[in-house]
Design brief:
Blueprint lengths: L8 H23 L24 H8 L22 H4 L18 E5 L2 E5 L3 E3 L2 E10 L19 H4 L7 E3 L6 E3 L2 E3 L5 E3 L12 E9 L7 E5 L5 E6 L2
Antiparallel strand pairs: 1-2, 2-4, 3-4, 4-9, 5-6, 5-10, 7-8, 10-11
């Protein structure tokens, strides 16, 4: 469990435990008591968004969160089919996608300031979807695309600049926003799971990926918020 930065260390330590316990109780209600649940509070020591700026309200809201992971131990290494328990988690988890170096057809194109963004289908891979885009410099001069403008209020600014980390996926029906997945390296160090964008040479095309938490299996299309390139609707999920 994690709170925002307000309050004393002692208060935040207690609040983060209670926040985690609330989620634990919901999981027990959905999945039952056949699993071992471990709760931990991290206080306000691991923020993922910088507080105190003009987007302070949104940043604090993102820092108030619960992170969880799970380990599955199968007897004999076999596979288990179930209609409950981990089947609940399976609503947003699929099989790993087979490897391919083909990003698929271009489903949308947007050009801004001499840079063309081509968007390919989103691809389910386990608990994530992989977004693949290509950037092409259509001018005769090297360009540094202004992706810093993709950073959004409350987003993890320190990990977004110069990458696709500011991109977002939006579920059209619910309006739920999915940010680029954050990798936790320990000691409060996080990094967005998105590739860096370097200087674009004239006439060259660069393929880049960003990884997001997967939506439910019923979601077949998502809207891509691509920073300075705007919103790109109806990107298919394969």
């Amino acid at each position: 469990g994690h709170p925002d930065g307000r309050g004393s260390d002692a208060y935040n330590d207690d609040l983060s435990v209670r926040r985690a316990e609330t989620v634990r109780n919901l999981l027990v209600e959905e999945m039952g008591t056949d699993y071992v649940y471990v709760v931990e509070g991290r206080g306000s020591r691991e923020p993922i968004a910088r507080e105190g700026g003009p987007d302070d309200e949104q940043a604090r809201a993102r820092n108030r969160r619960v992170e969880f992971s799970y380990t599955i131990r199968m007897p004999g290494g076999g596979e288990e089919e179930t209609d409950d328990g981990l089947g609940v988690a399976g609503q947003s988890v699929g099989w790993p996608a087979p490897f391919t170096d083909d990003p698929g057809d271009v489903v949308a194109s947007v050009e801004r300031d001499g840079v063309r963004l081509d968007v390919h289908p989103l691809r389910r891979d386990g608990a994530y979807v992989v977004g693949t885009v290509t950037l092409t410099n259509t001018t005769g001069e090297p360009l540094d695309p202004d992706l810093d403008a993709a950073v959004v209020a409350g987003g993890p600014e320190q990990f977004s600049k110069g990458t696709l980390g500011g991109f977002q996926l939006v579920e059209p029906q619910s309006g739920l926003v999915r940010y680029v997945a954050q990798m936790n390296f320990g000691d409060g160090v996080y990094s967005g799971f998105a590739e860096e964008v370097h200087q674009l040479q004239p006439g060259r095309t660069y393929e880049l990926v960003a990884v997001f938490p997967a939506p439910g299996s019923e979601v077949e299309q998502l809207t891509l918020r691509a920073g300075v390139f705007g919103e790109i609707p109806e990107v298919p999920v394969e």
